[in-house]
Write a structure and sequence with these properties.
72% helix, globular
C-alpha cells in the first residue's frame, strides 16, 4: 500500500490534460491542493460534455438534465480521487503502510457535485452564460413536494403584486413543508429585502447558500442588502465572494467598480473591475461599454505613480483594452 497509493493517485493527475509532470509534484501538494487540481480537471471533462450539446439543445429542461448528467459523471470520479487524496495525505503524515480505504462505486456526496459545479462556473464559458439566463437549476432549487410548490407559487404571485407580508407568509409555509427548497429561501430573502427587513433577508440568503453554495441569486443579493445599508466595505466583500465562484458576472464586477469609485473613493482599486466589466460588455455587445471605458481612461490618465501605471498596463492587456493615453511614460 505504501507505494501503490501514491501511484494510483498520481495516475489521476498523470493521465489528465494538465498535470503530466512528476511524482515530486504530488508529494509537494497539500490535500486541499490535490483535491482542487483534480476537481478542476474533472470539471474540464464536464465542460467538454456540456459543449457537445449546448449550442444545439434549446429546451431549458433538457439542458438542465444534461448538465446535471455531465456534472454527476465527473463528481463520481472526483469522489474516488478525493478519497485517495485524503488517504494519501494521512499516509504521508503518519508514515503508516497499513491503511483501509473504502469506496462506494458510483456514489458521490453533495460536496463533490458542488466542487465540480464551482470549478465549471469559474472556467466553463457555456455554463457561465447559461447560469445568467435564470434557467439554470441548482441542486435542491425546486421542491418535489406539491404543497411546498403551491405555497411557493402563491408567494411569487404576492411578490409580483408587492404584497410583501403575504409573500413572506407563503414562502415560510413552503419552507415548512420542504426546508431544502432553495428557490423558496431565495424568494423569502427577496421579499424581506423588498420589505426593508434587511437582517432577515441576509439570513434567508445565507440559508439558501447552505443548500446550494454556488447559487448566483443569493450571492448577488447579499451585497445588494449591504449596499442599501450603506455598508460599502461589506458589500464589496460579498460581491468578491460572488466573483470567486462567478468571475465573469457583470453585476458583481461593475458594482465593485462603482463602490470603489464613488463610495470608497479608491479609484485605483476600481480600475481592474471596470476593465473586467468592459471586457464582459464588449463580448456581449452591450452599449454600456462606452461609459465604462470613459472611467478607465480617466483613472489611467490621472494616475502619476509609475508602479501603478505598470499594473494598469498589465490589466489593460489582460482585458484586451486600448485607450488614449495622454502621458508618454517614456519621455
Amino acid at each position: 500500500m505504501k507505494k501503490i497509493l501514491p501511484f494510483i493517485l498520481f495516475l489521476f493527475l498523470f493521465t489528465s490534460k494538465t498535470y503530466s509532470q512528476s511524482k515530486e509534484m504530488l508529494e509537494n501538494m497539500t490535500e486541499s491542493e490535490i483535491k482542487e487540481k483534480i476537481a478542476d480537471e474533472q470539471a474540464v471533462r464536464a465542460c467538454d460534455c456540456i459543449d457537445k450539446f449546448y449550442s444545439t439543445e434549446k429546451d431549458p429542461n433538457k439542458i438542465n438534465i444534461k448538465i446535471n448528467d455531465c456534472i454527476t459523471a465527473s463528481a463520481k470520479t472526483y469522489q474516488l480521487a478525493k478519497s485517495l487524496a485524503s488517504a494519501y495525505t494521512k499516509h504521508k503524515k503518519k508514515g503508516s503502510s497499513n491503511m483501509n480505504i473504502f469506496f462506494g462505486v458510483g456514489n458521490f456526496d453533495a460536496d463533490s457535485f458542488f466542487a465540480i459545479e464551482k470549478s465549471l462556473f469559474r472556467n466553463c464559458n457555456n455554463l457561465q452564460e447559461y447560469s445568467e439566463t435564470n434557467n439554470y437549476v441548482y441542486p435542491n432549487s425546486v421542491s418535489n413536494k406539491k404543497i411546498a410548490l403551491d405555497f411557493f407559487i402563491e408567494g411569487q404571485a404576492s411578490l409580483h403584486k408587492k404584497e410583501y407580508d403575504k409573500a413572506i407568509k407563503s414562502f415560510k409555509l413552503a419552507l415548512k413543508n420542504d426546508e431544502n427548497f432553495s428557490f423558496a429561501w431565495d424568494n423569502l430573502g427577496i421579499a424581506y429585502y423588498s420589505n426593508s427587513e434587511h437582517k432577515k433577508a441576509i439570513k434567508a440568503f445565507q440559508h439558501s447558500l447552505k443548500i446550494a453554495p454556488n447559487g448566483l441569486y443569493p450571492l448577488l443579493y447579499i451585497p445588494r442588502v449591504y449596499l442599501e445599508l450603506k455598508n460599502y466595505n461589506k458589500s464589496v466583500e460579498n460581491y468578491q465572494k460572488a466573483l470567486n465562484i462567478h468571475p465573469n458576472n457583470y453585476e458583481a464586477n461593475i458594482r465593485i467598480a462603482y463602490l470603489y469609485f464613488n463610495e470608497l473613493k479608491d479609484k485605483n482599486s476600481s480600475f481592474k473591475y471596470f476593465c473586467k466589466a468592459y471586457k464582459i460588455t464588449k463580448e456581449r455587445g452591450s452599449s454600456l461599454e462606452k461609459d465604462i471605458i470613459s472611467n478607465v481612461t480617466d483613472i489611467y490618465n490621472n494616475t502619476e505613480d509609475i508602479s501603478t501605471l505598470t499594473t494598469f498596463d498589465q490589466i489593460l492587456k489582460e482585458n484586451n483594452i486600448i485607450i488614449t493615453k495622454l502621458r508618454n511614460r517614456d519621455s
